[in-house]
Amino acid sequence: MSPRIDQRALSKLGAKLQKDAGPAQARTPTATASAVRYQTQRNADVFQGAAPLGLARGVLGDTVAALNTSPVEAPALTPEQQASAEEAQVEATNHQDPSYLTDWLKAHPDPAQQAAFMDRFFEVYGTEAGQLLDLASEEDLPVLSDALDAAYRSGAVTLDELTAAVGSHLAGSVNGETHETLAKIIAGTGNPELITAYAQRELEVMMDSNAPDPVRSVAIATALAGLPPDQLQAFLKDNPDALGHVFKNLNDPDVAGSEALGRLLDAASAIQPATPESIKLFMDSIGHLEDNPESRAAAARFFMRHADAILAAASDASGSIGSEGAGRLSEFFTRTLFTEPSFEGQEELHAFITSKLGDMQTQLEAEARTNPPSQDAQRLARSMGSLVGAIEGGFLLSVEELNKRNEAVEGMTGLLFKLKDLLPSSSIPGLGTLQDLTIDQIQDWVTEALKENPDDPQDAIPFHQLFGESIFNPVLRGLYDSARLTSLENRELGLNP
Predict the structure, then answer these.
(1) Are 463 and 388 in contact, with CB atoms under 8 Å apart?
(2) 434, CA 20 to 30 Å: which among 134, 156, 215, 480?
């Protein structure tokens, strides 16, 4: 059994929880010092991504979110239960089949009994415990997450035991194992301390100078995606550079199809309202979306949920998007609009973008005859121009840099077709008004326009003109055109290694 810690001094976290758990009024069950035996390690090292080899360490904070279930103690099992627990663990390891573990846990749903079971498992098997849990089936993950959470809250399993179960090359593991399933189990606990301690250990393995293992980036991203929004925000704020190496390694060919980045983007999208840290995560992730449909879909969801905050963060005081922001957004549109594979929600993104541009245009129409236009209108004109330029930049990156002309044509066709309802009276030269055109007619026109201007694709498709022609105020039209051209030229900053 793990050493008991009843006599140890409470950590800062434990003291905080003890203070908060006063008897003045009934409260939703939370982890109190009297009921939960916190080890002093619980408020210790969590990872700082900027430092090498896992030496970067920080403190997540003195408070954690209330736990979902009541605190439990881990009493001794009866002799019969102890024997059956030992048998289940032996069978699981002998057969490399964690279903023996989950079958026992399902037959013994008492959290205290499960805590005792996990206590013995981690103490006896060490790194083998982590390797075995990584083989669990998807349907059994919640059972294992609940049991591990109960064991940790009772003090039966410590952070030291958890991190000791994470093997490294030639020390209970070999390079090339993502530990994605193990990370899902940790993430499923929803426990910030378990998650951050585990992620820090995987970061150490990933960045080991003797035998770095880049595929562990999957485990790190998967685990962090399990943090509650407020705790993920705190982590991002305290560790501004933590995810740089993780994102880079997610492009490793061995993990190119992982859903880890998508999970992390969805978790960051849940931070409401968007923060500088969550937007930084989004912007930094763009260069690593590549062809992964899950990553693209999650990035699209993030953009649709936080478009105003993203554009504001990327813009200067005048409303124009800066060069770096324009390059990254151009690549975002390349990956989500103008290259394959398609992904769930792509049509929704098309509709969202055209609707967003339509809303901007409507606001500018209110000052069609105002001279001079308001500062807000001028900023909006620059913002709209920058956004259109980034969209066109994404189209050109697909055509010029990735040589994916057919995919770019399909994406541009989809955008133009969506404009039929927003700009019904707008016309395409030599073809007629948008409202009278079928999607096949639009696609044929886009294809032919590119053939006629193979060396100047930016002049082939007058996407920007459809909006510019409806800006009747000459001052606002000039600002729109200028910002659009600057943003378009900065597309070259996208797709950089």
Answers:
(1) yes
(2) 480
